[in-house]
Design goal:
Layout (H helix, E strand, L loop, with lengths): L1 H10 L11 H8 L4 H8 L3 H6 L6 E4 L2 H12 L5 H10 L2 E4 L20 H14 L5 E4 L2 H7 L12 E7 L17 E7 L1 E2 L2 E2 L3 H10 L7 E7 L20 E7 L5 H7 L5 E5 L16 E8 L5 E3 L3 E8 L8 E3 L10 E6 L6 H10 L5 E10 H10 L32 E7 L11 H14 L5 E7 L18 E6 L9 E5 L1 H13 L34 E8 L4 E10 L2 E9 L4 E7 L16 E3 L3
Parallel strand pairs: 1-2, 2-3, 3-4, 4-5, 5-8, 8-9, 9-10, 10-11, 11-13, 12-14, 13-15, 15-16, 16-17, 17-18
Antiparallel strand pairs: 6-7, 18-19, 19-20, 21-22, 22-23, 23-24, 24-25
Protein name: F-box domain-containing protein
InterPro entries: F-box-like_dom_sf, F-box_dom
């Protein structure tokens, strides 16, 4: 469209008219465009170029010429030092690729600098030091920086994420600060191996990070690292990285025990292990067990996945169904595990994996199934087929657990409050959607076979990635949510109603952040036809306090919004209206509705109810 407008202006006999859009609207439009589209708009006219100039924020230097051109773009700009400072301040991401040592097409402008790569590295780092708003820096040939000391972390004043590859023992030699003090994410990859023997120990690596006092470091990623010795030398004094909350091990074996890792990372909250076994759980188990909130396991190479931590949430990704391993929760209180996410090729799994889920994970409150290779319709039919009848009496025999089939048992998943299923979009259906009758049958049977089920989420899309970094919650997948409303007075009259997706995703966020204490019996309450005031929009909302549902009533005449708290107690309920102040407290006046609900005599309303979420 932009090219057509410019072409029409050149062909017309009349001079092109200036765009009628104000400059601030043009800037707002350009903020949502990619660099290529923003550059196309800036070439429409001189006026638009002045309003929306091309702004380079991300640069990837794949060849030596790119380094020279980047240096010239910043320091040889027309306009002097002011323009150079402005251009450097726009840079937010710089990458020095591994192939940057190679040249592609030497020219007269670049040939004089191609003979000395160390000079080019100095030019690249000069641009990085000048970019005062630089947030991300990646250097693939870090061994040159170790040899020349070209990287000075103290000059990177606002850097947040650093990715270093091809690392040698110069990183832990000491005497030089490679890391900036503002660093939050540190990614160390491709540790050098000399004569098939690694040169860096895990103790030296952690000690070097500790000595630089990175008080803002919260995420540590270690990739392709097998140290030359175990962490037995840490038995006397283990380095402490107390600020690290997330540890990611990608094809890395620290050769450490659980006890030593818990000493090194005392405040660890999230652990991700990709394509390798777990640290050894040998010796005396720590008391209490090291606790994690989220644990991610991706294609473990061990015969069995041993989880020696107490965790609240487990994400298990298996891309090869034939090699699927069994989950073994050892040396930990597995009753604390309340959330399980299985990202698997299809809904048929090896017996060992699902059997452990049924036997040893009785406290699961939410279950997420993400299917990589099957469409949603086939997945729901498989799950629906495995729902038992009320009269069936199962025991944990081999006949009840086929080798390749998931089984839902009434007494094994009776704590599940939320079930989420993601699968591929069917190809045979011209509409690209699962038959609504299949969904309705699945919802009905799921509500019947899971007595505690409150919410069901279903989604289908063209591709489901096995990458552990992909998160399909929120807007990353077209989710549909349903709420199960149960009739306590008469069994079997349960109703399933669809709710807005944004409301369901808020529930997902709460469930992922909660632990066993928050998801104990009664925390979610029971939804039994809550009272809806006339002329208002009631939006049930999940809070951490038991039995509270929050809604809102909009008064169009006064343009005011009133919070509604519904307290469900026993067979009756009390609702109250009030306003929400900036401190997050609800000041309300209790009102009892005699037509819709009957207040329980044991119910009470706190005058200053603190909204935890």
């Amino acid at each position: 469209m932009i090219a057509a407008i410019a072409s029409a202006g050149r062909r017309s006999a009349f001079p092109p008219r200036r765009l009628s859009l104000p400059d601030d609207i043009l800037l707002e439009i350009a903020s949502y465009l990619s660099f290529r589209d923003s550059l196309s708009i800036s070439l429409v006219s001189k006026h638009v170029h002045n309003v929306v100039p091309p702004r380079i924020t991300t640069v990837i230097c794949s060849y030596q010429e790119h380094i020279v051109l980047l240096h010239a773009y910043v320091f040889r700009a027309r306009g002097g030092a002011d323009v150079a400072t402005e251009r450097a301040s726009r840079l937010s991401s710089l990458t020095l690729a591994e192939s940057a040592q190679n040249t592609r097409h030497p020219t007269a402008d670049t040939g004089e600098d191609l003979d000395n790569y160390e000079t080019l590295l100095t030019m690249f780092m000069t641009v990085a030091y000048t970019a005062k708003n630089l947030k991300y820096l990646r250097i693939d040939e870090f061994h040159i920086c170790c040899r020349t000391k070209a990287l000075d972390g103290t000059k990177l004043r606002n850097l947040v994420h650093m990715h270093l590859s091809d690392i040698t023992d110069g990183l832990v030699a000491g005497g030089h600060k490679f890391y900036p003090p503002t660093l939050r994410v540190l990614h160390l990859a491709q540790f050098e191996v000399w004569e098939l023997r690694p040169q860096i120990t895990a103790f030296a690596l952690f000690s070097s990070i500790e000595q630089q006092q990175l008080r803002s470091l919260s995420t540590l990623i270690i990739e392709n690292f097998v140290p030359c010795a175990d962490l037995s030398e840490m038995s006397n004094r283990a380095p402490q990285l107390a600020t690290v909350r997330e540890l990611v091990l990608i094809k890395a074996d620290l050769r450490a025990t659980t006890v030593l890792l818990s000493r090194t990372f005392p405040n660890l909250r999230s652990l991700c292990v990709v394509e390798y076994g777990f640290p050894h759980a040998i010796g005396t188990a720590p008391t209490p067990s090291p606790r994690l909130h989220a644990l991610t396991v991706v294609d473990s190479t061990s015969d069995a996945i041993i989880v020696p931590w107490t965790c609240d949430r487990l994400l298990y990704i298996c891309t090869t169904p034939a090699d699927a391993q069994a989950l073994e929760l050892r040396r930990c209180d597995h009753s604390e595990l309340v959330g399980l996410t299985l990202r698997i090729p299809h809904a048929k799994m090896r017996y060992g994996v699902w059997a452990v889920v049924l036997k040893t994970l009785p406290m699961i409150s939410w279950l997420e199934l993400e299917i990589l290779q099957k469409d949603l319709s086939s997945t729901l039919e498989i799950l629906q087929y495995d729902f038992p009848d009320d009269s069936d009496d199962f025991s944990y025999d081999s006949d009840d657990f086929p080798y390749d089939s998931i089984k839902f048992k009434r007494y094994s998943l009776d704590k599940v409050k939320c079930l989420s299923v993601l699968a591929l979009r069917p190809n045979s259906d011209c509409a690209g959607r699962t038959d609504p009758s299949v969904i309705q049958d699945f919802l009905r049977d799921a509500a019947r076979c899971m007595p505690a089920l409150r919410y069901v989420a279903l989604a289908e899309q063209d591709e489901v990635s096995a990458d552990w970094k992909e998160d399909y919650s929120g807007d990353h997948a077209p989710w549909r949510w349903w709420e199960v409303r149960r009739d306590r007075a008469e069994r079997g009259r349960d109703e399933v109603h669809e709710i807005p997706s944004w409301q369901g995703e808020r529930i997902r966020v709460y469930l992922r952040d909660a632990d066993a204490k928050h998801l104990s019996d009664g925390r979610l309450g029971v939804c039994s036809a809550p009272f809806v005031p006339t002329g208002s929009a009631f939006l049930s909302f999940l809070l951490s306090d038991a039995y509270f549902l929050v809604g809102g009533m909009l008064d169009r005449s006064s343009a005011s919004f009133t919070m509604i708290i519904c307290f469900v107690a026993g067979s009756g309920g009390i609702y109250e209206t009030g306003s929400l102040d900036v401190r997050g407290r609800v000041h309300a006046e209790m009102t009892v509705d005699t037509e819709q609900t009957q207040a329980s005599e044991h119910s009470y309303i706190q005058e200053n109810l603190t909204m935890q979420r």
